[in-house]
Design a protein that fits this description.
The structure holds two protein chains of two kinds.
Chain A (H helix, E strand, L loop, with lengths): L15 E4 L5 H14 L1 H4 L3 E5 L10 H10 L3 E6 L3 H9 L3 E2 L3 H4 L10 E3 L8 E4 L4 E4 L7 E4 L3 E7 L2 E4 L9 E6 L3 E4 L2 E4 H6 L6 E6 L2 E6 L3
Parallel strand pairs in A: 1-2, 2-3, 3-4, 5-7, 6-8, 7-9, 8-10, 9-11, 10-12
Antiparallel strand pairs in A: 11-14, 12-13, 14-15
Chain B lengths: L2 E6 L7 H14 L4 E5 L7 H5 L9 H5 L5 H4 L1 E2 L6 E4 L12 H14 L2 E5 L6 H8 L3 E6 L3 H17 L1 H4 L6 E9 L1 H5 L6 H8 L3 E6 L2 H9 L10 H13 L16 H6 L2
Parallel strand pairs in B: 1-5, 1-6, 2-4, 2-5, 6-7, 7-8
Antiparallel strand pairs in B: 3-4
Helix pairs in contact in B: 1-12
The chains are: A alpha/beta, B alpha/beta.
Chain lengths: 221, 269
């Protein structure tokens, strides 16, 4: 098997953020030098993100700031929380515009999606429906796992493991045409084969969470 | 274009090599030019079952490494002029197989042969993955017992996700179930899974049911593929399986318990 010569992967890094509260380059230079004097080695070549949230002037001298930092061997990776005009300026001089983690987390929730699988799930296979329901048209074999943040519907025999409400949704259900499961779980509450047998699992049925315990009801599927 | 058929199972000892030898011989006897490749590097057995162990000079790994060419490594079967064997190396391990190397050898064989039978090793590691990667058809050999059925299910999952056809989004690998060591009497007494049970769990078309037979061990030990023994039940069942593989529709034999006759009941069988 040939390994690809490049790969794109996400990763998070801890970066120092330099907050700029003044537009006066002379003042910034003086304060920066006194800070650097405390621990010159520590800041040598350090990557920095410049936070410009308090700068409200669109004619801010970003290029001047970059020169000051570069001349002191600090590397600007990008800027954050700046005015749109300053962002445009940053783009033109090759600086990245970085969204801070807090701003990014305010994105609207992902809409619910349903995952449909039209084949038998074989032993060793794992299917995960993130943020939604999972519909399997086929059987789920022994040793296979089907997982969904929402509900799981199986139009076939469930012989493996089924975990619904994986993200904590207590209203999720598991339905199967024939239940011979190794394990069923809803929002962390689980039953093994013997629990299913003790609770008189019907050949075809729906498993729900009632309060803190699982229940099974037969369905004429 | 040659058809690449992998004989696989996941579990060991279910009859992959016996099946590979029988099916390859059966196809060749029907007039199709066939080669059977042993992928079980380090645990070479196919040469014994085919009865050509004394004629192995170069092997599959030699060909992959360019130390021998295909014509030097291919062994022509003594009984059937259309049949060739490519033996495994006994002194290497499975990591000697690379996707590029196996692909090149199969491509070269495809120019000359109609059928390429790949005898997979047990397990789901490199050897087995290489054997199934290029397959067009898979014969999943299964014994009527739960662990074998589960391992076959796992291999079917691999065929659907790890094969070349799956990775490239082509037509999926055609999968057939071959049930071996079947014993109708023990099914009646509930000791063994029935054909229907296995078919229901694995949900793939049935290619054949090979009965548990004295003839198989005898054939293996004498280095003659069991299909040559046309008098034996296993030989006939393999012959039927080959016909089905070639598209014929035949009723399944040897799946019902034979009623013992009056004399047999008295004197035993």
């Amino acid at each position: 098997m040939q390994t690809p010569s490049l790969e794109l992967k996400g990763s998070s890094f801890t970066l120092s953020v330099l907050h700029i509260n003044s537009q006066d380059m002379a003042v910034i230079t003086a304060e920066l030098d006194s800070k650097l004097a405390i621990a010159p080695q520590f800041f040598l070549g350090a990557p920095l993100v410049v936070n410009l949230s308090t700068i409200k002037a669109s004619n801010f001298d970003l290029l001047g700031l970059k020169d000051i930092l570069t001349s002191r061997q600090l590397i600007i990776v990008g800027i954050t929380s700046a005015l749109p005009e300053i962002n445009a300026m940053a783009k033109s001089i090759g600086l990245a515009i970085i969204k801070s983690g807090k701003a990014a987390s305010n994105q609207p929730q992902m809409p619910k999606t349903t995952k449909i699988v039209k084949q038998n799930i074989r032993s060793g296979q794992q299917i995960y429906a993130k943020n939604g329901d999972l519909i399997v048209i086929g059987a789920v074999g022994n040793g296979a796992e089907v997982i969904a943040d929402g509900s799981i519907h199986i139009y076939g025999t469930l012989r493996g493991k089924a975990m619904a409400g994986a993200a904590g949704d207590k209203n999720a259900v598991i339905m199967a045409q024939k239940i011979e499961a190794e394990l069923v779980s809803i929002a962390g509450q689980y039953w093994l084969t013997e629990n299913l047998q003790q609770n008189g699992a019907a050949p075809s049925g729906c498993i729900r969470l009632e309060g803190e315990s699982l229940t099974v009801e037969s369905l004429p599927l | 274009m040659a058809q690449i058929i992998v004989v696989t199972s996941g579990k060991g000892g279910v009859g992959k090599t016996t099946t590979s030898a029988a099916i390859a011989t059966g196809l060749a006897l029907k007039g199709h030019k066939t080669v059977v490749i042993d992928f079980d590097i380090g645990l070479r057995n196919l040469d014994l079952i085919m009865g050509c162990e004394r004629r192995v000079v170069y092997d599959f790994v030699n060909v992959i490494n360019g130390e021998a060419n295909l014509n030097q490594a291919l062994i022509k079967d003594k009984r059937c002029p259309k049949l060739f064997v490519l033996p495994a190396s006994q002194t290497r391990d499975k990591d000697a197989l690379t996707k590029e190397g196996v692909g090149t050898v199969l491509n070269n064989l495809a120019k000359d042969f109609e059928y390429i039978i790949c005898d997979s090793p047990a397990g789901i590691e490199t050897g087995a993955m290489m054997a199934l990667y290029f397959a067009d058809v898979a014969i999943v050999t299964t014994n009527p017992e739960v662990s074998s059925v589960r391992d076959s299910d796992r291999i079917l999952g691999m065929l659907q996700s790890k094969s070349k056809r799956a990775e490239e989004g082509l037509e999926p690998v055609i999968e057939y179930l071959l049930l071996t060591r079947y014993c109708p009497a023990r099914v009646t007494t509930g000791e063994m899974l029935s054909v229907e049970d296995v078919e229901e769990i694995l949900a793939i078309p049935l290619l054949g049911v090979i009965p548990e037979s004295q003839a198989v061990l005898k054939a293996s030990n004498s280095g003659v593929p069991v299909i040559i023994d046309t008098e034996s039940d296993a030989g006939m069942a393999y012959s039927d399986a080959v016909d089905r593989l070639l598209g014929e529709e035949l009723p399944f034999r040897f799946i019902m318990e034979e009623k013992k006759g009056f004399l047999k009941r008295i004197f035993g069988s």
